[in-house]
Amino acid sequence: MDRLHDTAIDTATGQAAPSELSTERVKGIFSSIAGRYERFNALSSFGAYRRWLRTMMQQAPLDGNSDVLDIAGGTGDVSRMAARTFHPAHIQCTDLVPEMLEVAKAHRDHGDFDGVPVDFAVVDAQDIPYGDNTYDAVTMAYGIRNMPQRERALAEMHRVLKPGGALVCLEFSTPPNPLWRGLYHFYLHHLIPFWGKLVTGDSSGFVYLAKSIRAFPDQAGLAALMEEAGFRDVRWVNCTGGIAAVHVAFK
Fold first, then answer.
1. Span 49-86, pLDDT tens digits
2. Rounded distance, CA 190 to CA 169, Å?
3. Which fold has domain 4-250?
């Protein structure tokens, strides 16, 4: 990787910092809340995250022949939605945190992937252990924001995609309307830690969540990062007035 791709930041602030700072923090937070992560998502978004996943699937150029790499797959929400929507040939569900994948595996054992072949692996998206031109699509929800070497991670996703393949990314973003943006930031600062403490008994990880969202690039900023990594035809669709956005980018 060149020097640009080795640039690391503190994902809570966007400022330069050793990558280990953010990586270890993310592992600590998500390993401790893995079993309650889905409940937190449902409560804190008032169920909207399900609509956002459906929007993600509406934008995803997948079909029954697709071999899909799910990055930051967590408890398997995106993989399960892709399985039910498209019944692809195979899904490789990966995450940095083993405890999150254990929840995803439990969903598989309960038949929640509709019979689609799915494998699980602990993977750091900044160093993907798969070959060039391997996957038809890469999916990712709420992942890139937590990666301290974002340029490197996006370049890795570009590398493992087949020519013509697509990256489909759902991430928190920036509402363009100033009033809605102000209300959203108030919610992030005051209520996200409240919901986190209510569900998990500890608000500290959710204070980080709110900070990382505010420090993350807006829709155009993320699109620019994708283009710098080599992607083309980058587009996005806003969800709930821009609280989240689905970006689609092609190799």
1. 999 999 999 999 999 999 999 999 999 999 999 999 99
2. 27
3. Rossmann fold (3.40.50)
